[in-house]
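note to self — DONT lose this again. spent like an hour looking for the file last time. sequence + predicted structure for the chain T wanted, 233 res
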Amino acid sequence: MTSRFLQDYFEKQYLLQNDARRIVRFSIQEQFRHRAAEGSNSPIRVRLHRKKKSFFMRKFTEGLVDTETIVEALDIQPGQTIIDAGCGTGYMSRIFSRVVTLSGKIYAVDRDSYFIEKLSEETEGGNIEAIQSDIAQLDGLDDRIADLIYAATVIHALSRPQLTAFIKEARRLLKPDARLAIVEIEKKETPFGPAIENRTSPEELVEKVPMVPLKTVRAGDHFYMQVFLNSEK
């Protein structure tokens, strides 16, 4: 866990909500207290109801995933169009934005209005378009618009029908032979993340996603990235 992660995101108080839309506010002091309890170099462990913990991890994976490895493995090029599905705070959208340059385009998508409004304000005039939407219903985007769809720690929270709907929408949005990259937490004991029975291994993910698997990449401690080609198996 880097100090940059703590400075950039835990100095702000973000709202977390469960499916019943009850809101829990985590203060800066609480986050540092949890971190100190585990040791200064260990990931923050927050004891939450399972659904709240899943929401928390989806929003705050910065400092936990290896962004350099992810960008290198995806071979992102200037001028490309990328959809960051379930973007949360938008930290990967910002990284992708710099790589594709102003000749490219990033669509940062999340259901959470707070993060989308914040990201939109902070990136106004750039090549990031922040969209509040369900990742499986991007009706405002044209067919075959994307070179890459990136989805980090969102798939484990989807039901089978939701995953089917997401894959269908991804196929519509991706160009022929474009890529879908899914980052998930390893299916074993880790200091954070959803219950193991709610996680998906790379092998299980390959079985669930009806696209051609290209490669599995270690995306940081406790994370992997599975990359698919938008083509029939």
